[in-house]
Amino acid sequence: MLRAFLRTAAARARARTTRPAQDDDVLLDAPDDRLAPALLAAARGEHTPAAGLLAGTREDAEWEHRDRYTTRLAAFSRSRSEWLDAWRSASPEDPGAPLVAARLAVARHWDSPDRADLLRQIVPAVTAAAEAAGPDPVPWRTALDAARGAGAAHAEFERLWAQAVRRSPHHYGCHVAALEYLAAASPGAHRECLDFAETAAQDAPEDALVRALPLRAAFTCLTTAGDGAATGVPAPAGVPARHLRVRLDAAADRAIALSAAHPAADPWAAGLRNLLAYVLLRLDRLADAAEQLRLTGPYVTSFPWDRETDDPLGRFLQVRADVRAAVASAPPTTGSGHPRCRRGGRVRPGDH
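Above: the chain sequence. Below: its structure as tokens.
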């Protein structure tokens, strides 16, 4: 039922823009098998499946799943929050409902011209809810995002960060929030962002999602203007572009290894693979990007494609078609190292 709905939505979106006429089964931000029933129930005004889903992630300490499901449930609630209101009213002691509500509040205020002022008003309540959540790090991710949007001072953000990592030292969402705070506080601080991300990845278990944090830092570097445009790699003042390029390639290689640990067409790995394909294209690693586009299968995520367009699905389809065409027409690569397209055949998401 949900699959049919998403396919219909994708078809309507395709009709609004110019896209390759192919792959009717491509899905944008498709939920996995655990989340889909909760979303369907929420569409009917029922909160019990969502409550059960989040309760299970809390009991099993599945913090990455809990974080992702919270974000998706909050996103659904932006247009239909009646089911969430009913949940909070019926089960005031359930920690899942305020968790979703806090994420929803931050998301709503984030798009406001008065974002900083609005978020400053809710930071105390969001932080208090996080303190009452026991070992759960996910509320702290929300508190970190709220503090970042409110323009919190370094000392205040570091206090929240300490609480988050005390509960889960390798939680990806909290690390992303800290990385984005660092990037916003010091624009062009590519070295600091990569240092932070690489340290977090090195200290994490082999299968931890936070091992992909350097990839997120690489994305930040590649999408922030710098003085290395001539080489395709923006470099901050005082940092040789070649040295930065080595670190960006290393971040991509680490993410490729993490991607290889998941089966092809895995919805859980879709976010990693979409971001990885984007970064690889910006690094001119065309063959590597083509492989990640193959592995992601039908699962398209809005991020990072929505950073350049209001039609992320259309952008993904166009980029994928261009990559396939370029790979098909490129001469065979020889030698060792990363297969990359030649400068004349470079394909980047921003070219479309």
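Residues 1-15+35-152 form one domain.
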